Amino acid sequence: MLFFAIVLAATVTSTPTDINTTFKPLKFREVGPAVMGGRIDAFAVVEGNPDIIYVGTASGGVLKSTNGGTTWEPIFDDQSVSTIGDIAVSQSDPSMVWVGTGESNNRQSSSWGNGVYKSLDGGKNWQHVGLDETHHIGRIVVSPNDPNTVYVAAAGNLWGASKERGVYKTTDGGATWKNVLFINEDTGVNDIAMDPSSPNTLIAGAYQRRRTVFGFSGSGPSGGLYKTTDGGATWKKLEKGLPWDPNPAPPPRTPTPRSKKLAASASRFTAAIRTSSTRSWSTRKAACFAATTKARPGRRCRTRIRAAATTVRSASIRTTISACGSMARRCSTPKTAARRSDRI
User: Fold this and answer.
1) For the whole model, what pTM was predicted?
2) d(Cα 331, Cα 302) in Å, to the nearest integer?
3) Which CATH superfamily is domain 40-238 in?
4) What is the pLDDT of residues 312-338, one digit of tens each?
């Protein structure tokens, strides 16, 4: 409103007004875009001085704080890309900072980068050190024993097949790179973790994906966890006990409190028949039903037990015990109890 009032006053007055004087009372403020930085994709902290924090954004570059996050300074604005996938600080030499460009997310709006950058002075200056066609970098890990040994998890091209994906390794500070894990042209690596007590032991998370304009395929048989114990020279896919285990062990059947009651009921059921072997059929039948119905089994199980008892009315007591006991045990299993839970 102040702006329009000043303009109106300047318009209606007959005396010429200096433009600088007219707009001097106006104070400019930032009004957007409010999400210029986009998603926060990564951060790294100097362990020896946790007040030093680096943050990587989806589309706003890298920011640095030296006072624990009270204030932030952009330190990557002079580079050719502003989308960040990960940041890693060499804890043995905190002035060495690694940045992987290209957020490793799957949206149509995800921006791609142009490889890896390195700073030797805490982010004041940057050097592009290659891996231009990896497009999206999900993780960078630095060996705690050697700041020049670095592993990069490259997801690769989101929109098509490419060979520039997997795990890359350098042992000379980024001067040269070797693709130590390549699965196929559709499967990249989004994450990698290193055992700090044994830096040659790493586990990489592979992800088979493909984005199209109107859809997304986010799974495949090539995805999973891969492990190396020799610094990436050889890798083995981990399968045992994981969701993609080709030979999964059957889950243990732990009796529920309800199934335990039913199992006890089956025991009482069989015992009742055995102890009444000299009694009349009707007495044995009554004891049998009393033992099972005491635990209130479902209607279907009760019907099966009675049917079994009826069919062996003229049979021997041994056959009766076997038939009725079998039906009682069937009705006491956890699986059957679970099926009956909505009817009890």
Assistant:
1) 0.64
2) 8
3) YVTN repeat-like/Quinoprotein amine dehydrogenase (2.130.10.10)
4) 455 555 565 565 556 555 554 444 433
